[in-house]
Design a protein that fits this description.
Helices cover 54% and strands 4% of the residues. The protein is built from six helices and two strands; from the N terminus they run αααβααβα. Strands 1-2 form a two-stranded antiparallel sheet. Helix 1 packs antiparallel against helix 3 and helix 3 packs across helix 6.
Length: 137
């Protein structure tokens, strides 16, 4: 993520800390290599254990807010898509589904709400099911 966002210095260190905080909260050691398939497994384990997902999505927000301005741009979200192997062709629909006030950025509250809807929503047709680009075609 750091390389794709072309970060260095303080921004790089902040992003590394935020991402490691996510993995540490999931019980992943600092020296582990996390693959995209591990993300889904860890996610399922957290949900199954009844883990409070709000801190998880707040940490994810912080990790994706590369410039630390309190919001996620479509470009920042696209970098995350690149890092986890989701095609950019799915970016617009995912971003627009979460950007409920249509201002072209994701606020923390929009992002966390979309994440919670993704996890706990019962409506399989909800646009927030696109948060991860639509995992099932």
């Amino acid at each position: 993520m750091v390389q794709k966002a072309k970060m260095s210095g303080e921004g790089e260190e902040r992003t590394r800390r935020n991402v490691m905080g996510i993995w540490n909260a999931c019980g992943v050691p600092d020296d582990a290599v996390v693959k995209s398939e591990d993300v889904l497994r860890l996610f399922a384990e957290l949900l199954e254990a009844g883990h409070d997902m709000k801190p998880f999505f707040n940490s994810y927000f912080d990790a994706m807010d590369f410039n630390n301005n309190g919001q996620i741009s479509k470009e920042e979200y696209g970098i995350w898509f690149d890092c986890v192997g989701i095609g950019r062709d799915r970016l617009d629909a995912a971003f627009e589904a979460m950007d409920t006030d249509r201002d072209g950025i994701l606020s923390r509250s929009e992002f966390v709400a979309a994440g919670l809807e993704y996890c706990f929503g019962l409506d399989e047709t909800s646009k927030n099911q696109l948060m991860y680009g639509g995992l099932i075609d």
